[in-house]
Each structure stands twice: as structure tokens, then as C-alpha cells.
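User: C-alpha cells in, sequence out, please.
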């Protein structure tokens, strides 16, 4: 994977360009996340920790900080956060607490969501979020609200609409609520993953792997048609969708409002 960036200028998106710190084959850069204040960019990478080191077998979490309006160089987030297992898909709240995906500490390779508190300028030992967020299946791609009032994530737990669905859990008095499925307007029989709410709180973005029914009607493609289909939305490789983020507020239980 590589990290690509675009800028919105006068209401239009610029052409995609490779991020200045990404583009090396084998580094497998991905899952960029800006801190709520826009001063730090977290991402996942297999790049070497040292300049003369080897590419890592598993992903680690890295950070780039902004100083005087300019971005610095990527920095490994350290051994408190990173291990010999996978750590990735970072999401950060306004107080600096870091939520991420990992399969650390699991003999069966179970994937879970962890949190590391940011205290006195340092990250504490990560803790796996307990049930009802943890389901002992796959729970991943966390998005934490800036005020930690809710957590979006995807899971293949039982009772969903498809292979992987997006859920939300609300935080109240130190306790996470039962995970609520976002429903069949978001989730499909396919995969819906990687939820993200825009910084202004207005839009919920997510990736879906649902197929365009027009491409699967039993018709035979010629080469030109096949090429067009593979480069079009609904090809099953993943497309980005967005909806009004008010759906999150609407799902919040009345007793928590």
C-alpha cells in the first residue's frame, strides 16, 4: 500500500499525488490519521526502524509532527506501542489517547482494538478494549471520536448483515455500551470497513466492497468492457462512500442521550 494525498482547492479536488513520505515498495504504508488539532499524522508502515535496518515483517505505527507549518520526518512510535506483532490503523482523541488494531498477546492470532493513554507526555502500556467491543473474532479499523464519546469499528461478529459490518459503541461514565450495528443502509452482505468521521463531524466515510449488480448479470465482457468494469465503482475491490454523520447520533440509546 501507499499513501496518496489530494487537496481541495476552490471546491475541487486536486490530482492525486504520492505523499512525500510514502512510495517505497515494501514499506506497505497505510491508514493515515490526522490528530484532531491537525498537528500530527499517524500511519502504519513496515519500513525499517533504523536507516540501515530491514523492512519489518509486521506493521508498526509511525507519526509525523508539524512544526511552524511544515511537516517533519516520520518517527517510529516506540516499543511501548509497537511489538513484534502487528500494530496499525491508528486513531487519536483530542487528549492524545491512541486507539489501534493489533494481534499482540494472542496465541490464536485474534485481532482486537487496543488503547494507549497519553499521560505526562508519554504513552502507557496498551490495553485491549473489553467486551462488548471485543468479540473474540475480528474487531478492527477503529475510529475514536475526538472527545471519546463513541467508537466506530468493523467486526465479523455474529448477527451482522454481511461478512464484515460497521458498529458503534458509546462511552458513558467509563463504560462502553453494547456495540450497535449501523444497519442495512450502511452494511450489506459484503464487507463494510474502515469508518471515519470528518473533522467537522458532518460526514461519515467508509469503504465498501459491495458489487455493482450491473456487472454481474451473466453477460459476457469483451476486453474493453472488462477493463472498464475493473476500473469502475462496484468492482469488488473497495470503494469509498459517505453519508451524513447524524446516523451516529440517531443510533445512540435514549438512556445515554
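Assistant: Sequence out:
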Amino acid at each position: 500500500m501507499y499513501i496518496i494525498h489530494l487537496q481541495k482547492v476552490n471546491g475541487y479536488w486536486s490530482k492525486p499525488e504520492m505523499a512525500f513520505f510514502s512510495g517505497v515498495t515494501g514499506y506497505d504504508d497505510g491508514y493515515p490519521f490526522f490528530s484532531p488539532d491537525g498537528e500530527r499524522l499517524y500511519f502504519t508502515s513496515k519500513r525499517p526502524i533504523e536507516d540501515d535496518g530491514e523492512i519489518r515483517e509486521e506493521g508498526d505505527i509511525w507519526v509525523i509532527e508539524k512544526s511552524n507549518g511544515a511537516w517533519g520526518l516520520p518517527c517510529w512510535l516506540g516499543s511501548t506501542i509497537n511489538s513484534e506483532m502487528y500494530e496499525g490503523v491508528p486513531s487519536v482523541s483530542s487528549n492524545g489517547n491512541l486507539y489501534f488494531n493489533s494481534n499482540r498477546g494472542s496465541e490464536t492470532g485474534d485481532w482486537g482494538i487496543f488503547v494507549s493513554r497519553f499521560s505526562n507526555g508519554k504513552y502507557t502500556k496498551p490495553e485491549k478494549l473489553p467486551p462488548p467491543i471485543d468479540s473474540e473474532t475480528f474487531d478492527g479499523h477503529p475510529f475514536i471520536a475526538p472527545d471519546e464519546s463513541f467508537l466506530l469499528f468493523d467486526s465479523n461478529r455474529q448477527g451482522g448483515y454481511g461478512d464484515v459490518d460497521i458498529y458503534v459503541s458509546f462511552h458513558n461514565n467509563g463504560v462502553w455500551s453494547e456495540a450497535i450495528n449501523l444497519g442495512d443502509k450502511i452494511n450489506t452482505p459484503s464487507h463494510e470497513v474502515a469508518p471515519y468521521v470528518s473533522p467537522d463531524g458532518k460526514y461519515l466515510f467508509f469503504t465498501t466492497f459491495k458489487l455493482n449488480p450491473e456487472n454481474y448479470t451473466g453477460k459476457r465482457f469483451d476486453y474493453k468492457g472488462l477493463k472498464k468494469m475493473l476500473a469502475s465503482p462496484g468492482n469488488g475491490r473497495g470503494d469509498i462512500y459517505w453519508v451524513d454523520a447524524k446516523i451516529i447520533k440517531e443510533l445512540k440509546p435514549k438512556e445515554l442521550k
